[in-house]
Amino acid sequence: MLANLEVQSVPAGFETLNLIKPICRAVREEKYDSPTPIQEQAIPHLVQGRDLLGCAQTGTGKTAAFALPVLQWLEKNREIPGPKGARTLILAPTRELAAQIHESFRIYGRYLNIKQAVVYGGVRQGLQVRALSRGVDVLVATPGRLLDLLNQRQLRLDKVGVLVLDEADRMLDMGFLPDIKKVCAAIPSKRQTILFSATLPEEIVKLSKSFLNDPVKVSVNPPSSTVDKIEQKVLFVDREDKSALLESLLTEGGSLERVLVFTRTKHGANRIAKRLTKMKISTEAIHGNKSQPARLQALEKFRAGVVRVLVATDIASRGLDVDGITHVINYELPKESESYVHRIGRTARAGALGIAVSLCDAGEKSYLKKIEREINRPLTVDIDHPFHSESIAAKRSGGKPDSGNYFKGRGRGRGKGGANGSAARSGGKTKSSSFSRRGPAGRLANGRKSTGNRGRG
Ligand code: AMP
Fold first, then answer.
1. Are residues 175 and 279 in the same domain?
2. What are the CA-CA distances from residue 228 to residues 62, 223, 335, 348, 379 (Å)?
3. CB 72 near ligand 1, within 6 Å
4. 221-260: per-residue pLDDT in tens?
5. Please, what is the angle between helix 95-108 and helix 21-29, to 10°?
6. Are residues 249 and 170 both part of a single domain?
7. Is the CB of 63 under 6 A from ligand 1?
8. Which atom number of ligand 1 is nearest to the Cα of residue 59?
9. Domain range spanning residue 108?
10. Ligand 1 in contact with 35 (CB < 6 A)?
11. What is the CATH number of the domain that holds 80?
């Protein structure tokens, strides 16, 4: 056993992080070349047991940044959790994110003898209760269901030694603060606490002051800089032409391989999915009204490339980690500019590039303004599409016009109806060098090959 705990050198960079052999082996098999900046900054402190306040978005490798040290802590502090007990707890805002984190632990911990469980709402609790009955090393949970189980005495948190709050800003947005406080109160105060958040608003700083003990602060990718790798366009279009424009984007070019479409409402997501399916464009929708199994199934199909288009609302998309999304289409602009950054961050994952297209009608100009302020630059206006609305564009200043991106060869702003015979340009991008996996499994953005782990790694 001791031999197993020796630090092993792994591909460039990881050897400096003092990770034990079985973890290094799992990382190596994921074909990670080197640690991402957040891993580089966070892991050395976390393996020393420090509390940490991390500012990083999904897509930066933050899951491994906390999962690897948590696994190492478990291996070095072997203790039996006892019936219904948990040794470490990871709280996440959504079911999808919880499921993905759970999967990541399974992958990174595959050479350790780790018992783990995931609990979230929207499904019957029977199986979750059973999974917890003998105790687990890693428990990943959404706050609501966790608290339910705690109140029903199906769970004990008195053995928890490490607590992770992932996407803390989102948990606060979703009103989980009271639940989080109750959960924290049930955990021994002598613990390591790790808080990750995509943004650091005042409430998060306050939260970190009450929950964290002398934390190390690390930060990568302030929200607006994530978007640098993403080619961003805005297409001005009348509201009533949006669905026709979406359809032409999807049908007239071969480059939109794996496309995530965002709507503001669940109803809107369903409507679009129905229309596209009718047009024989394989599409699924995920939103809060769908059952958990239906959401997971839709996600799986999207990951596997069985469906080309996934239509999602903001809540359902949080933490969504699918490699090789070539395009994000904002069918409707989000009211909150931060959501825009989160949405488009679903493409350009793991160092890859991506394209984000926003369809903006007259009523959404104020949202566009907020977005541009958030990312600190104007979006490129693409006027070369058949539904371009000159009147909406005319009222806008800034943002250099661009043509030929989706409807190459087509006359500009032809008005409604959609000319035909155009070919879309090749929009699929190659990966950038900021961080990548090695070998064939590492082809990330071309949509052809993902990690093979079908989730975040
Ligand atoms: P996350 O930010 O945790 O959602 O991770 C985003 C994606 O990056 C996931 O698909 C991970 O598998 C991948 N990833 C994490 N760490 C690395 C790394 N060091 N090198 C390459 N890919 C990574």
1. no
2. 19, 10, 21, 10, 12
3. no
4. 544 445 677 889 999 999 999 999 999 999 876 688 899 9
5. 110
6. no
7. yes
8. 2
9. 11-219
10. yes
11. 3.40.50.300
Ligand 1 close to Cβ of residue 437 (< 6 A): yes
Comparing CA positions, the residue from 363, 365, 370 lying closest to residue 340 is 370
- List the end-to-end C-alpha distance of the chain, in Å, as a whole number: 25
Lowest mean pLDDT among 99-113, 199-213, 352-366, 423-437: 423-437
Query: For 312-333, how does the pLDDT look when each residue is reduced to its tens digit (9 = 90+)?
Result: 988 766 657 777 888 999 999 9
Q: Is 455 in the pocket of ligand 1 (CB under 6 A)?
A: no
112 and 178 in a single domain? The answer is: yes
SS3 185: helix
Mean residue pLDDT of the chain comes to: 81
Chain-centroid distance of CA 157 in Å reads 27
**The predicted structure's pLDDT at residue 374:** 83
Pocket lining: 295 vs ligand 1, CB cutoff 6 Å: no
Please tell me the distance between residue 61's alpha carbon and the centre of ligand 1 in angstroms.
Answer: 4
**How many domains would you assign to the chain?**
2
| Three-state secondary structure call for residue 305 | coil
Q: Is the Cβ atom of 58 under 6 angstroms away from ligand 1? A: yes
Of the candidates 346, 144, 326, 159, the one whose C-alpha atom is nearest the C-alpha of residue 253 is 326
pTM for the full model? 0.60
User: Do the domain assignments include residue 38?
Assistant: yes
Ligand 1 atom 20 nearest Cα = 32
Q: CA neighbours within 13 Å on the CB side: how many for 25?
A: 10
* One domain for residues 121 and 212: yes
Residues 152, 132: Cα–Cα separation, whole Å: 13
Distance of CA 220 to the CA centre of its chain: 15
443 located within any domain: no
Residues with Cβ within 8 Å of 7's Cβ and at least 6 positions away in sequence, in order, are 15, 18, 19, 20, 21, 24
Same domain assignment for residues 157 and 237: no
Residue 195 belongs to some domain of the structure:
yes
Residue indicated by tokens 């502090």? 77
Task: For residue 25, give the amino acid letter.
Answer: R
For the chain, the helix, strand and coil percentages under 3-state DSSP, each to the nearest 5: 40, 20, 45
Closest CA to 349 of 54, 57, 11: 57
Residue 333 CB–ligand 1 contact under 6 Å:
no
Could you read off the pLDDT of 405-438 as tens digits, one per residue? Answer: 443 333 333 333 333 323 232 333 222 223 444 4
Residue appearing with tokens 């706050």: 143
Mutate to test the pocket of ligand 1, among 24, 30, 43, 140 (most ligand atoms within 8 A of CB): 30
Q: Do 59 and 140 lie in a common domain?
A: yes
